[in-house]
Every structure is written in structure tokens, then in C-alpha cells.
Amino acid sequence: MRWSWRIGRIAGIGIYMHATFLLLLVWVGLVEYRASGTVASVAPALVFILAVFGVVVLHELGHALTARRFGIATRDITLLPIGGVARLERMPREPRQELLIALAGPAVNVALAALLYVVLAATGGASPSADLTAPPGAADGVAQARGLLSRLLSVNLWLAGFNLIPAFPMDGGRVLRAVLAMRSGDYDRATAQAARVGRLFALLFGVVGLFVVRNPFLVFIALFVWLGAAGEAAAVQSSSTLAGVPVGRVMMTDVRTLAPADPLERAVRYVLDGFQQDFPVVENGQVVGVLTRAQLLRALSERGASAPVASAMHREFQAASPDEPVDEVLTRLQTCGCHTMPVVRGRVLLGLLSTENVGEFVMVQAALRGPRAGKAPA
After folding, report:
1. Is residue 285's pLDDT more than 80?
2. How far is CA 171 from the centre of its chain?
3. Buried b (16+ CB within 10 A) or exposed e, 132-168
4. In the predicted model, what is the mean pLDDT of residues 295-305?
5. How far is 29 from 39, CA to CA, in rounded Å?
6. Each residue of 67-99: pLDDT tens digit?
7. What is the DSSP secondary structure assignment for residue 376, as one 8-state letter?
8. Looking at residues 140-166, what average pLDDT do you find?
9. With 200 labelled, which of 115, 129, 185, 303 sits at a CA distance of 20 to 30 A?
10. Is the predicted pLDDT of residue 8 greater than 60, yes or no?
């Protein structure tokens, strides 16, 4: 994800912090300072926020490590002001697997809440109202720590409950879809039904937030849930459309190529003519490299338009076979951060595959399935 920095690695999974997360910390610090008027009160508030996001990381790791048991890797986990996002390389199509992966996150929160309850019970009981900003004396320090643990217990219970709301993109939406798919055996139908339930919850949140409690945060959640339901339905429709389709049916075949000795200005002309942004580099009938738009711009600024393509191209690149399933290649395309992937047989170029032309294929297929498809003109 852009504007993110890696802050660590757990179980082989990169943990990233988005730049907007820093804005959250600054905002919390300013609010706390304005409320108390002392700098000393800011540090405990920031510690609490960081502890909450530590809990969020553990929640996402619950999803990621459970997915790993089913052979599904996790690209990374990114911390955002609204929570964490674990990017799985693919979503499971087996309902039982999706059910277990979806429940793993809330299960981590329930387990953490139980552990915190045991610790608090052993030290005199929970006290959610304990003052986190108490002076750092010996007794006050104990009360401060217990107050922090009590609030984290509440946070874990809240996260578990909120995430189990049966609406995308929360875990409860995936749980609902998995249960419906196990009953009906139709994953696409289960997704549509779960998305409808999600939209109903979004409308409920929106009405309550606007007219009952007048809470803008609830309205924001309503929008978040509505977009999540729509996005999940679209993603599954796309996946269903691409299932079993070979790359050769989707790839672009009207392709402009470059030779290693060509000047970069030839690539500039192709870009300006609107043909492509990334170019396979062909020599003696075989693909020997790829020149991306980013490489082209960097080479133009460093070497000028007369520099040869060979000085800027990628010699190590990924390629696809025309017989591979396009959904699998699309996953590779997104994982490697490539914009375009050459389609080859051996090393001979047959075409190009990009996320844009895959999207165009999905839209065309959706139009062909529309209510007017197959009707003769009046």
C-alpha cells in the first residue's frame, strides 16, 4: 500500500504503518493536551492508542495465520486510523475455510479479553474507570496499569462484537456468507445474500446515526459497510467471471514492442500515441526484457531520450502462458506490483496482460449477461 512504512515483521508477515496513522496520533495528542492542559497527560493517551493497535495487529494475525494453514499467504498487514488490513493473496472458495479464517480474528480478541480478565481478577478486579493519567507514584502506577488493562479488556470485547456484525467488510459478513454457502452450495448466491444483509445494516446505521443519536461516526460506519458490501459483491462477480478463463482469451494482441538498441524516444512516441504504457523488449524473436512507464520516466530524466532501451529495461521479469487461468495470473500480477505482464510461449511474445484489460473483459462479460443480452433488435 502506498504511503506506508514497514515497522516490523511477525511470523514472516510484514507489518506496515500508513502515513495517516501518524495523523491519528497527532490528533489524539492535541485533543488530550487541550482537554487537560498538561503535556504529562499526552503520553498515557498515546500509549493506550498504540496498545489498541497492537491488539488490532494480533486480530489480523489471527486471520493471516489461520489462512496460512490452508495454503493462503498474506502479503502484509497495514495499520490505518480505522483499524488494520491483512491482505491475503486470495480469498478461500471453500466455505469451511472462509468460516474458520473469518472467526480467527474475533477469537483472538475473545482470548485476549479472557487473559486480561484473569490478570485483573488476580490483582483485585477490573476497574474500567481507573485514571490512566494518574501521577506516577508507586500505588498510582499500579492503578494506572490496571486501568489500561481494564480498558484493553473492553476494547477486545468491543472489537470481537463489532467485527461479528453480519455485514461486509466485517468478519461477520464473511461468516454469514460461509454459512449460507455451506447450506446452499452456491458461493455466488451466498455472496449476494450476505451483501444484501450488509446493505440493510448500513441503512440501519445511517438512519440511527442521522436521526436518532446524531452521531457522525455511525454515519461513517454506515458508508463503510455499504461500500464494503458493494465491493465484495463486485469482487466475487469478477472472480466468478474469470474462473477457468485462459489468459489467451483475455490478453491484448495488438502490442507495440521495442528492441534493446531502440532509443527511449521511440517508447515516448508510443506512449504519446496512446498505445501502451509498458513495453516488452524483443530481440531475435524472443522477449528479453520489459520497459515500464516508471523506468522510462526515470531513464529520460537521468540519461535523455537518446539512451538505448537496454539501459533502462528490466531484464528479470515475470511472464504468463496463454493457457494459464487468468485469475491465477492476475493474483501474480497484483502481488509483483507489475502493471503489465508479457504472455509468451517459450520466449516468443503472444500478447500482454494488464489489470486494465482484465477489467474490460469482466465488464464486457457482465454486459453480455445483462437483461437485453441475446434479444433481437426491434
Report:
1. yes
2. 14
3. bbeeeeeeeeebbebbbbbbbbebbbebbeebbbbbb
4. 90
5. 9
6. 999 988 888 888 876 667 788 877 787 899 999
7. P
8. 84
9. 185
10. yes
What is the per-residue pLDDT for 110? Answer: 95
Instruction: Give CA–CA dist 27/21, Å, rounded.
Output: 10
pLDDT higher than 90, residue 100 = yes
pLDDT (tens digit, 9 = 90+) per residue, 250-272? 898 888 999 999 999 999 998 88
Dmax (CA) for the chain in angstroms is: 86
* Helix runs in the chain, H state only: 19-36, 42-69, 95-122, 138-163, 171-184, 187-207, 216-242, 247-250, 264-273, 293-303, 326-335, 355-368
Contacts with 326 (C-beta within 8 Å, 6 or more apart), sequence order: 242, 245, 246, 247, 249, 250, 353, 358, 361
How far from 353 is each of 243, 248, 335, CA to CA, in Å?
Answer: 16, 9, 14
Close Cβ partners of 174 (under 8 Å, ≥ 6 residues apart): 98, 99, 101, 102, 168, 194
Residue 334: pLDDT over 80: no
Contact 146, 123 (CB under 8 A): yes
CB 168 within 8 A of CB 174: yes
Q: How far, CA to CA in Å, does 165 sit from each of 153, 174, 205?
A: 19, 10, 12
- Give the sign of the dihedral formed by CA 104, CA 108, CA 109, CA 114: positive
Q: Supply the Cα-derived Rg of the chain in whole angstroms.
A: 26
Cα distance from N-terminal residue to C-terminal residue, the chain:
49
Supply 331's cell numbers.
493474483
- The Cα–Cα gap between 268 and 312 comes to 13
Residue 248 is placed in which grid cell?
Answer: 489467451
* pLDDT(321) > 80: yes
pTM metric for this prediction: 0.68
CB atoms near residue 356 (< 10 Å): 12
Alpha carbon 263 to chain centroid distance? 39
Compute the distance between CA of residue 95 and CA of residue 236 in angstroms, rounded to an integer: 13
Task: Name the strand (E) or helix (H) holding 134.
Answer: none
DSSP code of residue 305: T
Helix, coil or strand: residue 327: helix
Residue 369 grid coordinates: 449477461
| Interatomic CA distance for residues 167 and 226, integer angstroms | 9
Comparing 331 with 132, which gets the higher pLDDT? 331
